[in-house]
Amino acid sequence: MADRADSSIERRAHPRVPAVRWSTSLTSTAPNKVLVRGFPLDEMMGRLSFAEAVYLLLMGELPSPAIGRMLNAVLISSIDHGVTPPSTLTARTVATSGAPLKDCVAAGILALGPHHGGDIESCMRFLDSGLAMIRAGQSLQDAAEALVGDCVRNHQPPPGFGHRFHTRDPRASRLFQLALELEIEGEHVRMLRAVARALESQQAHYERSLPVNVDGAIAAICADLGFAYELGNAIFLISRLPGLIAHAHEERSGQAPMRLIDPMGHDYAGAGERRLPEGRT
User: Fold this and answer.
1) Each residue of 120-147: pLDDT tens digit?
2) Do 197 and 141 form a contact (C-beta atoms < 8 A)?
3) How many angstroms separate the CA atoms of 122 and 128, rounded?
């Protein structure tokens, strides 16, 4: 009785407020029709690549063929990186409990952070701070040296540089090659290259090699494509999701439950190195 009385008092004290109308510019749904940014979804199917549809949804317009191909390469570049990244280990660890696949993948996504998958936004901001110096009158190389100097004084590597495995990140190299071929390379990529040159003269201040990594390449390219800072990290999330699903599924279907996972104690048992079929450009 007390609960009902309290509920009645609450309704009288807080009468229903008319819902405020709000708007979205993303998707319109009606009986027998779905429009994404104005384009019928069923017409997009089979005509747009997944990357082109992602660009449309995030940016509001269809990409050019070159931008669509570039974004497709970016999404592939981080689709997986083995069993050792924190997000992958988290997804697999949760999978050992018998949790549903969605829970395993959600846990992996929550493991993304500034040191894993979150460096893209930091690098985009970093590059923009250098471009602001150029607009204020500094040369490209002077701006790059100033950025690197700040990092050295703070005893931090520049965001987008360095990797725990790679001394030359093959993913970054390929993305830069494509950006050049597709004529998408812009001021952010040029800024990143200048930072890389400036970093070479300061290498003695760091204990390890600091090559441009895939996060740095994605940051520069996404910034040149006009993505907002937050969407740079979102691109990594979209890219890595299939890898997390695959790892969680493999763990659930092929390993004993509640096992202690040693990330360095695994053996690779998949296909050997092979080439893509002819015609896959």
Assistant:
1) 999 999 999 999 999 999 999 999 999 9
2) yes
3) 10
Across the strands, what pairs with 117?
Answer: 113
Q: What is d(CA 203, CA 255) in angstroms, rounded to the nearest whole number?
A: 43
| H or E element in which residue 169 lies | none
Instruction: In whole angstroms, give the CA distance from residue 205 to residue 214.
Output: 22
State how far the Cα of 245 lies from the Cα of 183, in Å rounded to an integer.
Answer: 34
Closest CA to 263 of 149, 111, 152: 111
Distances from the Cα of 78 to the Cα of 7, 181, 265, angstroms: 51, 20, 23
Bridge partners of residue 28, in order along the sequence = 35
In sequence order, the β-bridge partners of residue 161 are 212
Structure tokens at 16: 């229903």
Alpha carbon distance 114, 232 (integer Å): 12
Using N-to-C axis directions, what is the helix angle for 101-110 and 229-254, rounded to 10°? 140
Extended beta strands in the chain, E state: 27-30, 33-36, 39-40
Q: State phi, psi for 220 to the nearest 5 degrees.
A: -65, -45
Residue 179 three-state SS: helix
Q: Phi first, then psi: what are they for 164, rounded to 5°?
A: -75, -20
- pLDDT tens for 153-195 read 998 999 999 777 777 889 999 999 999 999 999 999 999 999 9
Token pair, residue 1, equals 């009785």
Residue 220: C-alpha distances to residues 61, 119, 127, 138, 252 (Å): 21, 12, 8, 20, 37
Three-state SS for 35? strand
Sequence-distant (6+) residues with CB within 8 A of 203 are 209, 210
